[in-house]
Amino acid sequence: MSTRKVYGYLRVSAKDQNLDRQLAAMGEAGISSRQLYMDRQSGKDFDRPAYCRLLKRLNPGDLLVIKSIDRLGRNYDEIIEQWRILTKERGVDIQVLDMPLLDTSHAKDLLGTFIADLTLQVLSYCAHAERDNTRQRQREGIVLAKARGVRFGRPKKELPENIDELYSAWRRGEMTSEEFAVQCDMALGVLYRKLKERGFCVQDSPKHRPSSACCPK
Length: 217
Prior knowledge:
The protein is of the alpha/beta class. It contains seven helices and four strands; from the N terminus they run E-H-E-H-E-H-E-H-H-H-H. Helix 3 (76-89) links the parallel strand 3 and strand 4.
């Protein structure tokens, strides 16, 4: 009979996050670094390089160790589905370090399996609900911030302080509209709109200069 192998899987959702906490937990669990598989990308799906390599190595009776259930994914349905595939189809045991009840290598009887599956359902739902609540709090925070006058996104560009001088030079034909826009550090369409908002007379001609019919500010 083949000896059971123990593997650890680690994941962070972004490349600028670190795996230190998960690595420390795996070390405390006695898992060799040669048996660790690590991904640095979102858990929105399971098309992850290290996870795919790990699945090819896992055999029935092997043990997969993760620090928390959301390392398998960040979607309730997907976590449940992966748990089913690993434990039911592949015959792999799973141990979740943050939740001792989620350890299918112990209590193999009907009651033990029922407790582990039930615990998984509850924890997966709670993790999913917490992410939804976090996104809702973020949306509410943005609404409140906007009500206080906080602006999000890129700051709006304003006409430069020497706009009167630049506008006069443009009207005299000393610069083209494109050069005028460059001097104001904005797109030509934006420049025209800003000029109109400030009361400047703008009439687009084929030469991109105001006509003589335009009235000065």
